[in-house]
Amino acid sequence: MTDLIEVSYTGDLLAHRRCRRAWAFEKHVGVHPYEQVQAMEGFMIHHAMQWLTDRHRATGAHADVASLTAQLNSYFLVLWSRGIRTTFASKQETVDRVTRHLYDVEADAPHPEVLAAVEGAQHEEYPLRSVRKVVPELYGGKSKILLTGILDVVIQQKNTLTYPLQWRWTDKAAMLGEVIDVPDQAAVGDTEIWDYKGTRLRQNRSRDDYVRQVVTYAGLLQDRIGLPRRCVLFFTNEKPGSGRRLLSIPIDQEVIDASFAWTLEQVRELRNTVLQIQQDPLSIDGGDLTKQHLPMAQRVDQDLKAQCTACGQRFDCDAYRAFLTAGGADPNDIDRLNVNKN
Ligand code: SF4
Which Gene3D superfamilies match (predicted)? Predict the structure, then answer.
């Protein structure tokens, strides 16, 4: 038996925080969701950014809207064949949305933030792997953690760029902070790490987790590229020109160290879930990990609901049932005989 806990930051750590029950059944029982609703736009954005960067590097010019659209149409079919779905009505609507998120279609040119990422890209899809030693008594007998992740892009700024929003740390040790309406300015030559989020910038647990994630990635990269000037989250689903697409996150060694401590604590909780499912699979409740102290109906929020509706564990999930019935919603979603669903 291996002495190592392998943890993917998004596939394990963040998924476990979103819902430990769904995560545990998928990873340790092998029950996979039959489709992934809402994931499509995120996959398409990531693919498009990579494709635009490769294309710019190869030709020295930016792709036009027509070729970007053609590429997205092809990639949509690839995702569909893998069981990845969208909440939007049609393929055309999805491709149009993603294209408009990235390009000013009328001007046939990338939005400024896309331009900065494509032109400044030094390393894309940067794989991260780091082993940490831990005390076996706290991690169910395991003495090492292999933390893995993929950073979207390392950028060296080719032009100045203004970030309309900044993250302000309110408690670095606890990795807590808030978004403030104070611009930050990138200078030519600044090294930054960017993570693309196919969502909107909302005040919720996911937003805070994304901040912790990109800061931890900066720490994992520190030995190779040094400490970047800042981390940046690019919320691709925010309206272009809204001033809410880019969030600049200041970092220093104190924040990096705190992010590792926070991450290791999350791995400890994750390990406890593994031990629990091995002992008693039915004892694991659904819902947001940070809301387990709340009544059952409040452990699912609108963000998690998007996952619940395609979750294979939803039919006997007390948290989702309580959420649906408390809100007066139609519980058809958890009716096993509802042949119109799935
Ligand atoms: S239905 Fe929702 S709360 Fe229940 S296990 Fe699935 S994702 Fe978690």
Answer: 3.90.320.10
Q: How far is CA 32 from the centre of its chain?
A: 19
Q: What is the pLDDT of residue 39?
A: 72
User: In this structure, is residue 168 part of a structural domain?
Assistant: yes
CA–centroid distance, 300 to ligand 1, in Å, is 8
Q: Is the CB of 36 under 6 A from ligand 1?
A: no
What is the per-residue pLDDT across 205-222, written as a single tens digit (0 to 9) for each? Answer: 789 999 999 999 999 999
Does residue 302 sit within a domain?
yes
Domain hosting residue 90, numbered range: 39-110
pLDDT of residue 333: 81
At 140, list the tokens: 């169910």
Q: Which residues contact 223 (CB under 8 A, 6 or more apart)?
A: none
Residues of the chain with pLDDT under 70: 1, 33-38, 87-89, 339-342
| Number of domains the chain is built from | 3
**What is the per-residue pLDDT for 303?**
84
Which pLDDT does position 205 carry in this prediction?
Answer: 79
Residue 46 lies in a domain: yes
Separation of CA 19 and ligand 1 centre (Å): 6
Calculate Rg over the CA atoms of the chain: 21
Closest ligand 1 atom to Cα of 317: 4
- Tell whether 264 is covered by a domain: no
What's the 332 CA to ligand 1 centre distance in angstroms?
A: 15
Q: Which phi-psi region, left, alpha or beta, contains residue 294 (left: φ > 0; alpha: ψ -120 to 50)?
A: beta
Mutate to test the pocket of ligand 1, among 37, 315, 320, 335 (most ligand atoms within 8 A of CB): 320
